[in-house]
Amino acid sequence: MSIPQRGLLLGALAALLPCISAASEARPNIIFIYSDDHAFQSISAYGGRLKDVAPTPNIDRIARNGIRFDRATVTNSICAPARAVVLTGKYSHLNGVRDNATTFDGSQNTFPKMLRENGYETAIIGKWHLGSDPTGFDHWDVLPGQGLYYNPEFKTKAGIETVPGYVTDITTEKSLRWLETVRGKDKPFLLMMQHKAPHRPWVSGPRHLYFLEDQTIPEPANLFDRYENRASAASNQAMTIANDFRPRADLKIYDPSEETQREDLKAYGVENDTPWPKWMYGNMSDAQRRLWYAAYKKRNADIADVVLEGADLVRWQYQAYLKDYLRTIRSIDDSVGEILNYLIANGLEDNTIVIYSSDQGFYLGEHGWYDKRFMYEESFRTPLLMQWPGRIEPETSTSELVSNLDIAPTLLDIARVDADPHMQGLSLRPILENELEYQWRDVLYYRYYEYPGSHLVEPHEGVADKRFKLIHFLISDEWELFDLIEDPMEMRSVYDDPRYRDIRRNLESHLEKQKKKFDVPSNEPLSSGFGT
Ligand code: CA
């Protein structure tokens, strides 16, 4: 049971008002803006060390107009599985997508299908990443697979087409075009605008190639984590800034030992193929490639004659990584601004709920890492912001334990569509509307499968409440327990600390109960998949 901060009398009065108007109000439009690997640490509305050097003024508008979720989490911190959870409202073991290598079974029920059956016009534009063609949408226009940053292909019912430009801008333009000219104006709509950025290899758009060029990005306090006092999984991963970057693709470093590439760089690479992998950089035009080479000339010159080692190398690679990552975030922030401005200019702002989220969080040097997968906070959590004028009070925040399982039930609820009883999440509406009293969960269940995969993160499951987190690594059979008040950066497991014995037992009991509650089979595979 949760009691919101609002006073009793005010709450009681406010509770009377929506009853009068709700039935006659038009159902809201829904714009769900979803990015790929967007760390909440890089959204200034969440505060943190990057808020001044790389603010996100447009994403912050959603927080200012509405609510910020401070403990929004995912059930399985990796791309395709998270997308399947959002659509189905079910855990990976029930929707079938445990890892990035699995194709989504589009015949199963999803919230867009239910909205469409109940009078909504539905569209998805941008990154899809579920293998099969989208189902449940009147209009779909998606990137095949991971998609390309420059001049990407888009796939529709009519086939595949290459579109010139930068992927974030194209996704935004296609979304605005759908809002303006494609959709019928007689129905409420669902638009899922899903960006490729900021996914690896963090390729900046032309407008932001020089953003942060001369800045020094603040480091996290645990950039040089030594993985002591934890299970072996934290040491055994392959996602460190120190050792696990690909120099060309991730750091944009040209290999001077390859003579043809040296010549290519000198000429700003017009005649030959790019020295960076084509599948990552896409089909850059000559003009785009010239801009790209020019922008990375300084980074390559700086590193050409020096040998960096140890902490110096980590620091240099951290700066390179963060600058590229934050450049892609800039394009997302521009996109959000364009959508919000369109809603205002077209009188759609008042009856549209706008949601900003990511498929999961990401490490921006915390624990010395990039990537995701672990149940530690940076990748267990994901950004979640919502505005809905008149229904969500501006500038609010909540620390309730929220899950990406909750997106589907929430959007069905606010569209006044009966819930699917097989969905496993909760409607967030009582939190959004600041109801006086509501039942809420006090614990979250998590399960990660993909192994060995790209980054050797050991499969694990666990439970978290508002203060404590229990993690069981499934192959090594090692355990961790964290106290997030005493140790917010999760640097020291207290699993074997006798002072935490009762807490540990309580969470172990929760873990078993949660697995029963969510129908996790006893023969569930420990690991699954090799996708990237
Ligand atoms: Ca992702």
General description of the model:
With 532 residues, the chain is of the alpha/beta class. The protein folds into three domains: 34-204 and 328-442, Alkaline Phosphatase, subunit A (3-Layer(aba) Sandwich); 206-317, no CATH class; 447-517, Arylsulfatase, C-terminal domain. Helices cover 31% and strands 14% of the residues. It has helices at 8-21, 57-65, 79-88, 92-95, 111-117, 167-182, 233-236, 259-266, 278-281, 286-304, 310-345, 377-380, 407-414, 429-432, 501-517; strands at 29-35, 67-69, 72-73, 121-127, 139-143, 153-156, 159-162, 189-194, 352-358, 384-387, 396-398, 402-403, 444-448, 460-464, 468-473, 478-483. The strands form four sheets. An eight-stranded mixed sheet has the order 5-4-8-1-9-10-2-11, with helices on both faces. Strands 13-14-15-16 form a four-stranded antiparallel sheet, covered by helices on one side. The protein has a two-stranded parallel sheet with strand order 3-12. α2 (57-65) crosses α11, α5 (111-117) runs parallel beside α13 (407-414) and α6 runs parallel beside α11 (310-345). The radius of gyration is 23 Å and the shape is globular. Mean pLDDT is 91; it is low at 1-21 and 267-274. It binds calcium ion. Residues 36-37, 79, 359-360 line the site of calcium ion. The site of calcium ion has 5 residues, from loops.
Explain the layout of strands and helices.
Elements: H1 8-21, E1 29-35, H2 57-65, E2 67-69, E3 72-73, H3 79-88, H4 92-95, H5 111-117, E4 121-127, E5 139-143, E6 153-156, E7 159-162, H6 167-182, E8 189-194, H7 233-236, H8 259-266, H9 278-281, H10 286-304, H11 310-345, E9 352-358, H12 377-380, E10 384-387, E11 396-398, E12 402-403, H13 407-414, H14 429-432, E13 444-448, E14 460-464, E15 468-473, E16 478-483, H15 501-517
Parallel strand pairs: 1-8, 1-9, 2-11, 3-12, 4-5, 4-8
Antiparallel strand pairs: 2-10, 6-7, 9-10, 13-14, 14-15, 15-16
